[in-house]
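Notebook entry, structure prediction.
Reason for the run: the old model in the group folder had no record of what sequence produced it. Starting over properly, with the input documented here first.
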Amino acid sequence: PPTVTDARIFTVLDDKGIPLHTPPERQIDWREPFVAREIHETLPRWQAAAYLADPDFIATKAEATTSVLWVLTAFLLFAVAGGGVVMTALLGSELALARKKTDLVTNVSHELKTPLTSIRLFAEMLMADIAPSATKRKEYCTLLVSETERLSRLINNVLDFSKSSQGKKQYRKTKLDLVSLIRQTVSCEELRLKQKGITLRFRSRYKKVEFTGCRESLIQVLVNLISNAEKYAASGKMIEIMLRKEKDTIVLETADRGPGVPAWAVKKIFQEFYRVDDSLTQNAGGSGLGLTIARMIVTDHGGQIDYQPRPGGGSLFRITFPDNKEEHSHGA
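New structure, fully documented this time:
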């Protein structure tokens, strides 16, 4: 190999350590070779030696390597710390979700018991002929239907949430009359609510409002909102449903005189499994899915749903749908 390059110098040192060949214009300390080895036993103390062309080369490389190692170490520590924070947050989120799902099972089980108990009670009364009058029998049958529909709603909420999570929710949309749909829903719910001292009232100046949507799903939205108002409306209070038009939109509102939603919880009430933890509402049942399902259905129908505090106290949920431009018949 060449004796002189930009990186190193090869030479031979005599027995006194003096190089036999010294390249010109090189400032080298010949007393300290980078590496040296004796040539042969016949030439004692004669050595083949190698010198660095730049004596500071190793120091410079070492400093650069040290800097890189420090940067990599800092990055590794940051990554470990950041990863720990992220994993802790994810674990906390998963644990919170697991608790919510456990609460869902508990709440749904409790919610299912109430209509089942009522259905059994009225069925046994009819079988025993305890209510012989035709009026009472009709009332009990109406309550049986109402409780059965309530049971179906609870089951549908859970099933719809499962379908929506898997992207399998489907709708059978047809042209329907929202006024008729709301009146029929109110008719099914008002007797059961009357038993609790709650009045359910529907107001609209239209006799007919045509809209294209899934009938069962829209009923589910309305019943979920009524059920939500029922949980928080004290005995003797009224739940109102209003239907009107505003420019190119159809507006459906449900209003109650319950405690309302605290300002800090307004943005969370449509989240799945979320239930307001408040001294005024802590005894109210529910699965925490009613408003979530309502928002999902409304959104899938091209509408929006939001919450507003009701003037004078209570809650007001407003749903807006795009108007289909059909002529609407006015009522009194």
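Summary: Residues 84 and 125 are 62 Å apart (CA to CA).
The old model has been moved to the deprecated folder.
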